[in-house]
Amino acid sequence: MALEWTITIVGRNEFGDTCRKEIRVDKSWERLFDGDIGLSIDDGKTIMAALQSAVVSHEAETYSLFRRVCPDCHTLRSVKDYTTRKVRTVFGAVKVRNPRWMLCEKCYPGMVAAFAPLKEICPDRATPELMELTARLGSMMPYRQAAKVLAEFLPIEPTETHATVRKRTIKIGERLDDQIASEEQHARSQTDERRQMEMQLPGDRRKEFVVSIDTAHVRSVDRNSARNFELVVARCGRGGRGEPGGRYFTTGSTNQTALRDRALHALQQEGYCGFGDVTVISDGAEILKRLPRAMPEPTAHIIDWFHIAMKIQPMQQIVNHIVRSQSSPFEALPTIDRDIRAVKWRLWHGRIDRAIHDLERIVAGLQQAQGEGEFSIARLYSLGWQLLTYIRSNRGALVNYGKRYRSGLRVATTLAESAVNSLVGKRMVKKQQMRWSIHGAHMLMQVRTADLNGELRDRLRAHFRQPEPNVPPLFKPKPPLLRAA
Ligand SMILES: [Zn+2]
User: Fold this and answer.
1) 349-403, pLDDT tens digit by residue?
2) What is the pLDDT of residue 185?
3) C-beta neighbour count of 14 within 10 angstroms
4) Tell me, what's the pLDDT at 474?
5) Structure confidence at residue 129 (pLDDT)
6) Measured in angstroms, how far is the CA atom of residue 108 from the centroid of ligand 1?
7) Nearest to 343 by CA among 398, 301, 284, 416
8) How many Å apart are CA 322 and CA 336, to the nearest integer?
9) C-alpha 1 to ligand 1 mean position (Å)
10) Kind and range of the H or E run holding 261
11) Are 178 and 448 in contact (CB under 8 A)?
């Protein structure tokens, strides 16, 4: 026994052409006993591919015909030639007739040129939807896996492999990057103007804008250069702790201007107009220090509190152990526990000079006690020295964290760190065997960032938006024209 279904679709265009297509789905009785009730994904693929083929062909034909009419004299342009063109869509690739029309001989005498109308509506040979979907998946998972996922659910041609996914992802990334670069220019000129205004309006303070910034190390594909390169990942937002984190930005270019332009662009989307306080919070990495130096005044740079705390924590652990075991170093350093806690307290409250002074004393004491030959002392000395160096070299970026905290302001780069995880982490860092080019990584991150900022679709739509071609005003085809067509 067989169960047969027929789907009929009918298309009609303004020229009065109709197109009719029947799609048959055979469902054998036996399939029911295999549990195959209803349509399967494969049936769906077959049906959608057939429907798509009918719709795309009809639309392509109609559009070509519509573009054959000269907008000036409303006669039909002559044919240069016909080739075929493949239009790739989420529901399969469709081969369509691809005519090229000559420019109108009457309206453009002496000009011999032709154009392909389909290029106007499908410049990529893949639809924007397919491009976007491919790029989005490609930015979230390995290219090979993305290609498999696409083919799992959609009637995608077998020729569309991980290489296709990579190519489309990078291409979309480049588009987003270009778009942002041109917006950056605008952002820059606006802040230049506002900077002058700000001088005339002293005391006009807005709420703080915070840029939390961090780096991610990515393995380099270029075996001749350094093993790793860094991606800068940031989140820019307004306001303090507990408020939404704001926009993401990511860049593989770590020069000062590039960082500033990306940051200004992201801040502007958050309402920054070139005045108001900007605070950059980082772990003090040299690359990241470039940003606050390049931002409009007033911009403050703060060292992430947790980086300081994390440097003190292992010291405290060692000291706790010494105190608990009452081992011999304890006799040499009876106040070490209290001293280290005091350093932390002073740092939290922004008493940097005192903290440095105390720490110098602790380190000197540890150096002397090292003679005891205790491993824990040597370790403590080395940690103390590292902390001292870190604090000295970031002295200008240490603030009264306690005060900021009590006023509800941010003191840590937790936002940036979680951004590194959600943007770069799974895709690039944890898969250690994967290697990247800076260009590829940067472009992929543009896709990922736009997606996370919730604007991928809008940005791509804005790019694909074609100017509507010059249409004859009376183009509601009239009977004589229809006959001519
Ligand atoms: Zn003409």
Assistant:
1) 999 999 999 999 999 888 888 776 677 888 889 999 999 999 999 999 999 999 9
2) 82
3) 12
4) 43
5) 93
6) 7
7) 398
8) 10
9) 61
10) helix 256-269
11) no
Distance from the alpha carbon of residue 470 to the mean position of ligand 1, in angstroms: 12
Q: Do residues 443 and 151 touch, judged by C-beta distance below 8 A?
A: no
pTM above 0.90, yes or no: no
Read off the amino acid at residue 161: T
State how far the Cα of 12 lies from the Cα of 55, in Å rounded to an integer. Answer: 10
Assign 112 a pLDDT band (cuts: 50, 70, 90): confident
C-alpha 476 – ligand 1 centre gap (Å): 17
User: Averaging pLDDT over each range in 166-170, 248-252, 298-302, which range is the top one?
Assistant: 166-170
DSSP secondary structure of 51-96: HHHHHHHHHHHHHHHHHHB-TTT-PBPPEEEEEEEEEEETTEEEEE
Cα 112 to middle of ligand 1, angstroms = 13
How far apart CA 333 and CA 328 sit, in angstroms, is: 9
Q: What's 468's DSSP letter?
A: P
Model confidence at 206, pLDDT cuts 50, 70, 90, reads very low
**428-472 residue pLDDT tens:** 766 567 888 999 999 999 999 999 999 999 998 888 777 666 655
Contact 233, 416 (CB under 8 A): yes
> Distance between CA 294 and CA 297 in Å, rounded?
9
**What are the extents of the domains in the chain?**
2-125, 183-304+412-454, 306-397
Structurally, at CATH architecture level, domain 183-304+412-454 sits in 2-Layer Sandwich (3.30)
Inter-residue contact 144 to 166 (CB < 8 Å): no
DSSP 396: G
* 72 CA to centre of ligand 1 in angstroms: 5
Contact 214, 283 (CB under 8 A): yes
C-alpha angle 143/149/155, rounded to 5°? 115
Side by side, which strands form the sheet with 299-303? 247-251, 228-238, 209-219, 278-282, 299-303
Taking the centre of ligand 1 as the mean of its atom positions, its distance from the CA of residue 73, in whole angstroms, is: 4
In this predicted structure, the answer to whether residue 480 has a pLDDT above a threshold of 50 is no
Cα 13 to middle of ligand 1, angstroms: 23
Tell me the mean pLDDT in the region 48-53: 94
Rounded to a whole number of angstroms, the CA Rg of the chain reads: 32
At 221, phi and psi to the nearest 5?
A: -80, -20
Q: What angle do CA 354, 213, 188 make, to 5 degrees?
A: 115
Per the structure block, which two tokens stand in for 332?
Answer: 């040499």
Cα of 103 vs centre of ligand 1, distance in Å, is 8
Beta-carbon count within 10 A of 453 CB: 15
Tell me how far CA of residue 339 lies from CA of 335, 381, 384, in angstroms.
6, 14, 12
Residue 139 in 3-state DSSP? helix
